[in-house]
């Protein structure tokens, strides 16, 4: 990797987040009339915060193949909508029962539980509407594949399945294992991050080898990201993260931090980040931001 400025990634992340925020603002317009409250709840969930890491992965993956920024931003925004929906539902009293998200009240606190459920549902539907629209890509086959891949990442063998495993693990009837926690986290968090890394290659109709490399990068990055999140929950303050911390131990959640301890969990995250970087060897210097993201993922404090 060429020598780079230490501010390069933070600046790139901020610039990408601003672009994605603008895309979300455009694709989720404030409405008047009977639906206004629903749109307001959707915008509360999707706008005004978050690292936009998944969207950044889309943009950087697309840049490897010369995909238009407009197309990449629409896909990035769609994935961020689906991610926002998952957070809205995850925060509900029936799930994690959280009051704060990204430094502001969760949707069910700012509005009410029924509105939060509908806002999550509507964000999920809007994500697929954006992907399926001809403005996202001129080739219907590409649009169909984007929809299919996102559905698989979010469904019963992806994010929703992982959430179910997470809930089942809380009852304590089965002692957690490293393999079991790894699978839970792969489904709950990793699959959507993996698709985010792959999406740019789908847009660019990339060769199979390069697409596979980005998938593998996203898979390792997602695993490292989740361990880093668990470490933050155990060590960071609410002011740093913008949400309640210490909740994993309080709820008896199965995490690698709880199973292995902080130092071994950190070592595991570092190993995964190194493996993620190695998958980018064939891309050369143009993938330097993605390499830096792997390091940032395990060093962040929010």
From TrEMBL:
Q: Which domain of life is it from?
A: Bacteria
GO biological process terms, semicolon-separated: terpenoid biosynthetic process
Q: Is this entry keyworded Transferase?
A: yes
Enumerate the InterPro entries for this protein. Isoprenoid_synthase_dom_sf, Polyprenyl_synt, Polyprenyl_synt_CS, Prenyl_diphosphate_synthase
Q: Which Pfam families match?
A: polyprenyl_synt (PF00348)
Q: Which cofactor does it need?
A: Mg(2+)
Name the keywords, alphabetized: Isoprene biosynthesis, Magnesium, Metal-binding, Transferase
User: According to its record, what are the GO cellular component terms?
Assistant: cytoplasm
Q: Note the Gene3D superfamilies from the entry.
A: Farnesyl Diphosphate Synthase
For this protein, the record's CDD domains field holds:
Trans_IPPS_HT
Q: Which GO terms describe its molecular function?
A: metal ion binding; prenyltransferase activity
To which protein family does this belong? Belongs to the FPP/GGPP synthase family.
Stated name of the protein: Farnesyl-diphosphate synthase
Organism annotation: Teichococcus aestuarii
